[in-house]
Design goal:
By secondary structure, the chain is α/β, with parallel strands linked by helices. About 40% of the residues lie in helices and about 20% in strands. Strands 3-2-1-4-5-6 form a six-stranded parallel sheet, covered by helices on one side.
């Protein structure tokens, strides 16, 4: 899909001081895209701050050793964020995923921009660059850099590689295309070391995480004539295994390893009493439409929502919708 970058480039050229933000619980695509965009802007002589609604997970700390990625209210206030010429959001187009950042966007006088690849979308205002055929927002940031003739350092190339590799399940998901792999090839040529990054991302788990995985996977439920599988994590599971919420990353994908399963979800009880539900599916099953029924969103094969209610009640409400989607 050929993108017209002109509106965003005009926004960049007209402004000097930028704030970059992404979604709550930022993943590698969010953080990698922010770091890549920050590099592009700084290469053009701009001033950049990166502020998210929640802190980056410790597992991704190696991407940001100088701790440039801040959490609103910790190191920077909402008022300080409003003191900017432009505010660009990456890897989301949903108000619900921005939390306190959304309040800033609604009250700032700064010019606004969005760079995203998700199907689900709200009107955040300003310039929108959206390509739902892109495997990751990191792809779009790389292409913006090429359009502006910006050279990437090996550190920035590493961040963009992680953004793309993780959002494609290390190139296993149907979203992976020839375009994806051509970009990956160029990032490797810049000095990225895939084997070392795979180890950093996927082979550094704690014993606590393994205890949590064992407990949760042992109670997978298969329903919908074998087409749907789901599992859940309660707060007591974290306490009793000494694990943390970040340890649930990718856990839902265990359900898709079961023969015949076409769609899956995991329900995770949050400290504030809400339930975070992550949906996954095989090619052809649209779980984004399910997430949207609960005010969430995402990709057709990977989506999520935060739902108010008791854990068992939320699962009971979600399950028939997933079964319907799985056909």
């Amino acid at each position: 899909m050929a993108l017209d970058w002109t509106p965003l480039i005009d926004l960049i050229r007209r402004n000097q001081r930028f704030v970059l933000s992404s979604h709550v619980r930022p993943d590698a695509d969010a953080i990698g895209s922010e770091l890549g965009l920050a590099h592009i802007l700084q290469s053009l002589g701009k001033t950049v701050r990166i502020v998210n609604p929640s802190a980056a997970p410790a597992s991704l700390g190696f991407l940001d050793p100088t701790k440039r990625v801040l959490k609103i209210g910790e190191g920077i206030s909402a008022d300080e964020m409003r003191d900017a010429d432009a505010h660009i959001v990456v890897d989301t187009s949903a108000w619900t995923q921005l939390q306190e950042i959304g309040n800033v966007l609604k009250t700032t006088k700064a010019a606004k921009g969005v760079i995203d690849h998700h199907v689900s979308s709200d009107d955040l205002g300003g310039v929108v660059i959206k390509d739902t055929t892109a495997a990751a927002t990191g792809e779009l940031i790389f292409e913006l850099g090429q359009t502006l003739n910006v050279k990437f350092s090996v550190d920035v190339a590493t961040a963009l590689y992680c953004a793309i590799a993780t959002d494609t399940g290390w190139f296993r998901f149907p979203s992976t295309t020839g375009r994806t792999m051509r970009i990956i090839g160029q990032l490797i040529d810049l000095g990225v070391e895939p084997a070392a990054l795979y180890s950093q991302l996927y082979e550094q788990h704690s014993k606590a995480r393994l205890r949590l995985v064992g407990r949760v996977v042992s109670r997978i439920v298969v329903d919908g004539d074998g087409k749907v599988a789901y599992l859940w994590v309660a707060q007591r599971d974290f306490r009793e295994t000494s694990s943390v919420p970040a340890d649930t990353e990718d856990l839902v994908n265990e359900c898709l390893k079961i023969a015949g399963v076409k769609a899956a979800f995991i329900a995770i009880e949050q400290l504030n009493g809400t339930i975070k539900v992550s949906f996954r599916s095989r090619l052809g099953i649209d779980v984004a439409s399910v997430a949207e029924r609960f005010n969430g969103g995402g990709h057709k094969q990977a989506a999520g929502a935060v739902i108010t209610g008791e854990l068992a009640d939320v699962m009971a409400r979600v399950l028939p919708n997933v079964i319907q989607a799985a056909g």
